[in-house]
């Protein structure tokens, strides 16, 4: 396509090689990976990646010149309203083929480990954001308390000075000093208030009020404790269940329940980070009712994950079984 001499026979030989091997294999790959042996997750991901390879290959083949001449420079590199050039399209196709090869090498276990680790990392991000928000709220409450103390002190000083003025007119110099001190105090308080206002403007989230009428702080502390437990649950699931599910696919002579159980729990593992993200927004909105509703949903899903994966792939109990039982007890505590 890009170098001379360019002949139709050179292209047709490549297409025949693709037609006799790679193309039929790509088309049949996903149907051959039955969910009962490979998991629905692997089948769906393989279908998506194979379809992308076929789509990109079709687009590249459609860019072949029909006059038998090599592509001009503009068509090679793209731009100028021509869209992606042939070199970029070829590179994208190679990358898509590499993704299929990586998935084939990783298998169902590798894919599920990767997904679970991504979900766990998202949970950790949510936890860190909530921790920072709690710390910011605490600092804001301390600043407000300090400003109130300064205002009380300034008011008391003003009252004392008023009495002295009535008693003795000879203390004008001393009173002038007091007035200067009061002005400095008020100026410092003004600067502090301005900084607090600036901090509020720069921060898009609400803060927990110092008096906390909706009891947001106790809810947040309980959430952070159980959120940390949930991240530990993901780590334990990855190590004790997903990685222990090998080999997948299981031997035909010894069918396994691992694929179906993993498919059952994966939607919960995927949903929990989204639910915790929504819960974080409810905290930022100081919406106690929505916080309670979403917390119940999160803990129910986390409890269900531990329950569904409590039993090992072989046998009745193992170390994770006992750990999951303790997790279920702890996650139900406020």
Automatic annotation (TrEMBL):
Q: Where is the composition biased (Acidic residues)?
A: 164-179
Q: Which GO terms describe its cellular component?
A: nucleus
Top-rank taxon, per record: Eukaryota
Which InterPro entries does the record match to this protein?
A: GCIP-like, GCIP-like_N
Q: What Pfam families does the database record attribute to this sequence?
A: GCIP_N
Q: Which part of the chain is the Cyclin-D1-binding protein 1-like N-terminal domain?
A: 78-136
**Protein's organism:** Phyllachora maydis
Q: Where is this region: Disordered?
A: 66-85, 135-179
**Compositionally biased spans, kind Basic and acidic residues:** 66-76, 135-148
- Supply the name of the protein: Cyclin-D1-binding protein 1-like N-terminal domain-containing protein
> Sorted alphabetically, which PANTHER family does this protein's record hold?
CYCLIN D1-BINDING PROTEIN 1, CYCLIN-D1-BINDING PROTEIN 1
């Amino acid at each position: 396509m890009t170098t001379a001499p360019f002949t139709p026979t050179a292209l047709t030989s490549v297409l025949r090689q693709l037609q006799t091997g790679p193309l039929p294999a790509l088309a049949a790959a996903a149907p051959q990976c039955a969910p009962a042996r490979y998991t629905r997750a692997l089948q769906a991901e393989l279908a998506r990646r194979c379809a992308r390879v076929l789509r990109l290959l079709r687009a590249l083949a459609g860019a072949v010149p029909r006059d038998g001449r090599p592509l001009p420079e503009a068509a090679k590199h793209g731009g100028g309203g021509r869209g992606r050039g042939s070199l970029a399209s070829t590179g994208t196709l190679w990358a898509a083929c590499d993704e299929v090869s990586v998935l084939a090498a990783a298998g169902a276990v590798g894919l599920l480990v990767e997904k679970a680790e991504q979900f766990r990392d998202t949970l950790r991000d949510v936890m860190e954001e909530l921790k920072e928000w709690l710390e910011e709220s605490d600092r804001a409450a301390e600043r407000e308390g300090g400003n109130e103390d300064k205002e009380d002190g300034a008011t008391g000083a003003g009252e004392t000075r008023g009495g002295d003025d009535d008693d003795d007119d000879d203390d004008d110099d001393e009173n002038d000093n007091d007035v200067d001190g009061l002005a400095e105090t008020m100026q410092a308080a003004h600067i502090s208030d301005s900084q607090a206002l600036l901090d509020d403007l720069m921060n898009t989230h609400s803060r927990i009020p110092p008096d906390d009428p909706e009891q947001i702080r106790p809810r947040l502390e309980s959430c952070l404790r159980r959120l940390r437990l949930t991240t530990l649950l993901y780590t334990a699931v990855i190590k004790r269940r997903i990685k222990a599910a090998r080999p997948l696919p299981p031997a035909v002579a010894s069918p396994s329940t691992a694929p179906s159980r993993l498919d059952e729990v994966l939607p919960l593992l995927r949903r929990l980070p989204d639910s915790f993200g929504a819960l974080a927004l409810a905290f930022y909105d100081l919406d106690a009712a929505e916080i309670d509703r979403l917390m119940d949903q999160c803990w129910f899903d986390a409890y269900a994950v531990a329950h569904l994966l409590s039993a090992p792939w072989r046998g009745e109990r193992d170390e994770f079984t006992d750990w999951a039982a303790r997790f279920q007890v702890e996650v139900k505590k406020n």
